[in-house]
Amino acid sequence: MARALLSAFLAASAFLAAAVIDSAQHKLESIEQDRVPRGTVVVLGKDELNLYVRGKIARSFLQGIRGARLDLGTGRATGFAYIDFPKLGQEMGRPLGRLMTWLLAGERPVQVEAHIRSAGGRAQVDLDRVEVSGFSISGSALDYLIRNFVHPHYPDAVIGRPFALAHHVDRLDVRPTEVRVVMAR
User: Fold this and answer.
1) Measured between alpha carbons, how far is 168 from 184 in angstroms, rounded to an integer?
2) How far apart, in whole angstroms, are the C-alpha atoms of residue 148 and residue 26?
3) Domains contained in the chain, number
4) Which residues, other chains included, contact 143 with Cβ-Cβ below 8 Å and sequence gap of 6+?
5) Does the chain have fewer CB atoms within 10 Å around its N or its C terminus?
């Protein structure tokens, strides 16, 4: 009996998680396909975003990243994940050299804190802190990680300078429980 209840609970949980992921996917596709009416506010809840991010990472990378999650605050987001940089490099078709493989070998806890400002169809994401295994990363080491792990998969990612928001998005309001995508009027 207990096994049947556990199986039913796990099946229901998987179904709900898939529905939430589909909900976030649907909202984001509606924005990207310009199907959201002007003046509308699209709300992506924190749990919805976390499930979406985990699903997106699982589909994009078979190895190298696990345990990804987002914490939100007012105008800020903090991302956490365990990353095995050499495995991730392999997965991306960009194996690391021997020295970098030795330096970055093994799964490492990574935390990225960023502030997000946006208004009038423009946004800016500023990194406040990046930690790998509890050590703060900045300067050329951070540039290396962005150049080799962020830009190959997200070539349009812009950090530290303003960029235009696409698809008639006026602004992103990041709050502790949600991100509100406000469409221009």
Assistant:
1) 6
2) 30
3) 1
4) none
5) N
Quote the tokens at residue 57: 């990472």
Beta-bridge mates of residue 169: 183
* Spatial CB neighbours of 139, under 8 Å, sequence gap ≥ 6: none
- Residue 132 Cα distances to 107, 121, 125, angstroms: 10, 33, 20
Q: Which two tokens stand for residue 43?
A: 């709300």
Question: What pLDDT, on the 0 to 100 scale, is given for residue 13?
Answer: 39
Range of the domain at 149: 2-183
Q: Which amino acid is at 125?
A: V
Classify 89 as helix, strand or coil.
helix
Sort residue 121 into left (φ over 0), alpha (ψ -120 to 50) or beta.
left
169-174: strand order across its sheet: 41-45, 178-183, 169-174
Residue with tokens 């970055």: 104
Crossing angle of helices 46-60 and 2-32, rounded to 10°: 90
Question: What pLDDT score does 105 carry?
Answer: 87
Q: How far apart are CA 180 and CA 171, in angstroms?
A: 8
User: How many CB atoms lie under 10 A from the CB of residue 40?
Assistant: 14
Tokens 């509606």 sit on residue:
30
Q: Which residue is listed with tokens 């709300």?
A: 43
Q: What is the dihedral of CA 67, 26, 119, 157, to 10 degrees?
A: 50
